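sorry for the late reply, my laptop died twice this morning and i had to redo everyting from scratch. anyway the thing you sent over, i finally got around to it. pasting the sequence first so we're on the same page, its 561 residues, then the predicted structure underneath. double check i copied it right bc i was rushing
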Amino acid sequence: MLSSLSIRDIVLIEKLDLALADGLTVLTGETGAGKSILLDALSLALGGRGDGSLVRHGEAKGQVTAVFDLPLAHPARAILAAADIADEGEVIVRRIQMADGRTRATINEQPVSVQTLRALGARLVELHGQHDDRALVDPTTHRTLLDAFGGLAGKTEAVGRLWRAWRAALSEAGAERARLEEAQKEADFIRHAVEELTALGAEPGEETALSERRTSMMRSEKIAGDLSEALEAVGGSGSPVPSLSAAVRRLERRAGESQGLVRPAVEAIDLALDALETARSHLETALRDAAFDPRELERVEERLFALRAAARKYGGAIDDLPKVAAQFAAQLDALNRSATTLAALEAKVAEAEDAYRVAAAALSAERKAAGAKLDAAVDAELPPLKLERAHFTARIDSDPQTPGSEGYDRVEFWVRTNPGTRPGPMMKVASGGELARFLLALKVVLADRGSAPTLIFDEIDTGVGGAVADAIGHRLSRLAGQVQVICVTHAPQVAARAGQHLLISKASAGAGKDAPVTTRVAPLDAPRRKEEIARMLAGASITAEARAAAEKLLQAATLSA
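ok and here's the structure:
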């Protein structure tokens, strides 16, 4: 609850220190006394829009401090924890407004951003009035309010977790699909590379071995040619052996005629023939040892050409081809595994979506049941508020094709003010006075389910009186049994039910007509309270009848409390 409010130099308020009680507190006073200034100051403290014009004339700055007493488990404390703000008991929010338009904000004496202050303020105070454009008339809050009424917050959170799991699975599958699509653009090249390099079967050091073999074979080719020519000269068609052998035979036939003359020549020729035979034998052996196969040289050269072409095609050296082949094989394997992984991820997406849709469908059904109960509960509050012919509907539009973190229901509060008229959104169909009463009925029903600890109603009784004003006062009193209620009112029936009554008035701060005017707020004791209610009944001239009526209102309020 809001336990105290201190204001310095805001508009007409010079200095105000106000202690507030739980239950129902009413603020009354004549029109123009400054009731709206008090609410504007509180709004500023809770993160409302700052404006240099709020600073009291002649002052450099104004300041508003609000102190809240909250249970330790209140959700507002989570905001403090998230912002790393010291939290040891009371929550103190302060807003300093400079005359030049700048503002500063603190929570528990720690500087904070206006966004943090505003987030905390939304948890601490709700402001409702005839022209309220937030709170209950904001359709974006209606689903949350219905969930709070039906006790569905936990199930909504569970649906949210399933939603996030589904989206995460979709994101993961999408990323894998993108990787696979990118890889598939080069899949044909990778497969061809693997097939080509596998068929080539390059081995480390193979180029060096082949080059050496080719050099050796080319060298052998030249030697073999020379050996063949020598062999041809020694033992071929041009060999001198046949001629020498014939000459030896002729000389041997002449040996008898002149032994001493022929024998040396025959012996010399025989030695020459033996030498030629030995040379022929060596040449044949050398030629066999230098055996050269042109087809093998061709095969070696073709292999070298293939290896060097592959090296140019895939980059790097021939000795790197086995490594390149392994890399392409790994890419192909990854491509194959990626397809399998994607299939598994898509199955995970389908499973996550099924889980979400089952939970969302169950939540939707429970929301519709809770909506029917909320309709009945609000309708039961309407007759005493002179809306007996009106009807409230928590309209639920379900579209499984537009899922979200809170399910696929769109909830909006609709009303029908009279039979035969077309129902529509509460903010559009209800008049100002009707809207205020619909809001009050809703808050009475929702008071103990997701409400802020402090509710402020700004003149929601405008334009009504008598039994309707009394019904409004009765419901505000009931509401105050659950949360702190602060109400700016002109209705004596409402004021009579308050536990704390504050009178707002204006007074001159000095003598003369040009003396500055200040707004003051004073708590009323029982006699002054009766006098104020009598004024509200009678106007400027308070009569005995008005005082009696005020006494009667106070007694009736006490009896019905």
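Residues 321-381 form the longest helix (61 residues).
thats about all i looked at so far, will dig more tmrw
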